[in-house]
């Protein structure tokens, strides 16, 4: 495992030997330290993992492109009441060049095989589940620069993005500068389950370190933000 930086964004190279990822090993502890420091100091990092071949990546994005070629009426069957969980159609002033699909419980093979109108909600034993979104960012008219999606911070537990190598994503660095990064994209997001209350862990709270913010229900906040 090695760590570097690119445009101020930490780069963490994962070991290709699976034994090095065993919990408790020196490599594992070093990796955990690098991830923790990247999250604390930058809020994000880039992962390099050489066991994923370029051929596999090409096949992945070839498959990702397919659902976007479906008829619009078929795509609209993927309807969800929860924000970010269904089909987003491009158009309007807010997201004129952005189109995406949501697939709930992304870690489930059966969920991945479900048709757009039969995606089921699964029960979960943890406080979060995986939401996968396949995203298409269309190019604006030639010679025109525009923000496809406004500057934002993801409000979920974590976000893992796999890009197709086409320049477009911009990341704000620690010093406030914006850098072009790697526009088809595959995103996997950790989403708190319904009813989860977000608050500082009790192990981190004492008389010298009281809570500054009241706990809140995650999905209630999402609905409030959507209404606004």
From TrEMBL:
Alphabetic keyword roster: Iron, Metal-binding
Superkingdom, taxonomy of origin: Eukaryota
InterPro entries per the UniProt record, alphabetical: DIOX_N, IPNS-like_sf, Iron_ascorbate_oxido_reductase
Alphabetical list of Pfam families matching this protein: DIOX_N
Listed GO MF terms: metal ion binding
Protein name per Swiss-Prot or TrEMBL: Non-haem dioxygenase N-terminal domain-containing protein
SUPFAM superfamilies recorded: Clavaminate synthase-like
Residue span, Non-haem dioxygenase N-terminal domain: 9-91
Tagged with keyword Iron: yes
Keyword Iron on entry: yes
């Amino acid at each position: 495992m090695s760590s570097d930086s690119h445009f101020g964004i930490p780069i963490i190279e994962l070991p290709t030997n699976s034994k090095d990822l065993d919990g408790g090993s020196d490599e594992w502890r070093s990796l955990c330290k690098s991830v923790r420091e990247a999250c604390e100091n930058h809020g994000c990092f880039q992962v390099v993992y050489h066991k994923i071949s370029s051929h596999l990546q090409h096949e992945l994005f070839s498959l990702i492109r397919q659902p976007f070629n479906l008829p619009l009426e078929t795509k609209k069957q993927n309807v969800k009441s929860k924000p970010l969980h269904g089909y987003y159609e491009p158009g309007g002033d807010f997201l004129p060049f952005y189109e995406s699909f949501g697939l709930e419980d992304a870690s489930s093979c059966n969920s991945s095989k479900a048709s757009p109108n039969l995606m089921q909600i699964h029960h979960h034993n943890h406080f979060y589940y995986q939401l996968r979104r396949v995203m298409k960012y269309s190019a604006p008219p030639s010679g025109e620069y525009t923000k496809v999606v406004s500057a934002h911070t993801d409000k979920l537990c974590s976000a893992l993005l796999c890009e197709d190598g086409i320049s477009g994503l911009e990341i704000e660095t620690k010093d406030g500068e914006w850098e072009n990064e790697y526009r088809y994209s595959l995103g996997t997001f950790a989403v708190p389950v319904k009813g989860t209350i977000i608050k500082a862990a009790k192990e981190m709270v004492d008389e010298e370190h009281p809570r500054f913010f009241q706990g809140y229900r995650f999905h209630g906040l999402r609905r409030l933000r959507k209404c606004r």
